Amino acid sequence: MSELVSTRIRTTAGKLGLPHLAEALNQYAQRADEAKMGYLDFLDLVLSEELAVRDDRRFRQGLRLSKLPHHKTLENYDFSFQPDLDPRKVKDLATLSFVEAKANAALLGPPGVGKTHIAVALAVAACRASYSIYFTSLDDMVRNLTAAEAAGRLTSKLGTYLRPSVLVVDEVGYQPLERTEANLVFQVISKRYEKGSIILTSNKTFSEWGQVFGDEVLATAILDRLLHHCDVISINGPSYRLKNRLAAIERDTQVA
């Protein structure tokens, strides 16, 4: 490839918003020459590589905006430590059919069993599949919505929790809510109903949600919309955090 043609292609690629093509042109040309590619094969190579780069850039940008506390995947989850949890149920969720159907997923269990890990892993998978995602604890969401309502910006702030294809709501039940706060949660659940997916984690059974939301009627209304299309996974096992802490204590004791 002549330097003149190479320069023209790089300039055109830049104008088309294909920076990777401009940077990797010589590498593509060398690969095509070594493989004796035809014109169509070379074009397929260039377009496929550019699409992969663009998808990776979008994925990393989606993760950056998601507010996820970490980016762990299901490969990092130790299913052997939770023998009562059927891995197939979690892996079925990882197919994201529930996201495509705008349905929900609920992960229930005591603290430390890996609910947030699984919720985040599902969100990461959804982001990889080009769905927009957003993570929040219930406490943070309520606090932000309450402040927005006081400032007359509730409608605008609700958009933060309504726009994403997948909203992860973590730690439902750790702090009881006032009725006004519970009503804000109801607005989010109600407006997302059959329009976007929710992945939530909770240390409370659904029968205890009346106490969490301070009103049995309101809790029932929330559950009615949330559970209409929802996969529920209960994890009733030991705590990862406690396991690690006990192991550390045991090591310290042995050293002493």
Kindly state the number of beta strands.
5
What percent of the residues sit in helical stretches (DSSP H or I)?
55-70%
What is the strand content? 5-15%
Based on CA inertia axes, which overall geometry fits?
elongated
Keywords: ATP-binding, Nucleotide-binding
InterPro entries: AAA+_ATPase, DNAC/IstB-like, IstB, IstB_ATP-bd, P-loop_NTPase
Family: Belongs to the IS21/IS1162 putative ATP-binding protein family.
Pfam families: IstB_IS21 (PF01695)
What descriptive keywords fit this protein?
256 residues; five-stranded parallel sheet; 12 helices; 59% helix; 11% strand; elongated
Structure characterization notes:
The mean pLDDT is 90. It is elongated, with a radius of gyration of 24 Å. Helix 9 links the parallel strand 3 (166-172) and strand 4 (197-202). Helix content is 59%, strand content 11%. By secondary structure, the protein is an alpha/beta fold. Helix 7 crosses helix 9 (179-192) and helix 9 (179-192) runs parallel beside helix 11 (216-227). It has a five-stranded parallel sheet, with helices on both faces. The chain contains twelve helices and five strands. Belongs to the IS21/IS1162 putative ATP-binding protein family. Residues 101-234 form the AAA+ ATPase domain. Keywords: ATP-binding, Nucleotide-binding. This is AAA family ATPase.
